[in-house]
Design goal:
This protein is an alpha+beta fold. The chain has one domain. The protein is built from three helices and nine strands. A hairpin with an 8-residue loop joins strand 7 and strand 8. The termini are far apart.
Length: 175
Amino acid sequence: MKSWLQPIPVLFLAVVLTGMATLGACTSKEPATEGFAIYLTKNDISPTMLPAMNYIGLADAPLISGDDIVSYDAKTHEIKLSDEAFVRITELKVPTTGKSFVVCVDNQIKYVGAFWTPISSQSFDGITIVKPLGSDKKVIQIGLGYPGAGFFQGYDTRSDRKILDALEKVGKLVG
């Protein structure tokens, strides 16, 4: 009598174990309900390299999480930040060539951009956050291009439905 429990072929077992290891490697450290977050890139990828990248690693923790956001204006893309988050942004070292960031929802990349310093003489054609020099309002704005929108090329993905839904879900969306 033949048992239904036949020895598992070694190749099949190898495929299953490899698949399980791959899935484990793709599991994020953060829970899937992280919501909106802005990360710096792992290994500090140059903004000029972003278009050529087929994989962008995220820093270990978000620079700005949903908890850091007081409000997000859907029309102007202005983000009012908590005191602590605003200090992190003002203390961020941003070279005149920019510093890359990644906007995510639940650890899925929605778009990339670059922090830019207002003292830079170099232009940038992507999505930007100009580093504030200080403000009582504690607001940053996700903009298009540097030094202005006329330098922007590409698609404006700041109003991605998943981004706005994530912010609305936690009561941070205005406008």
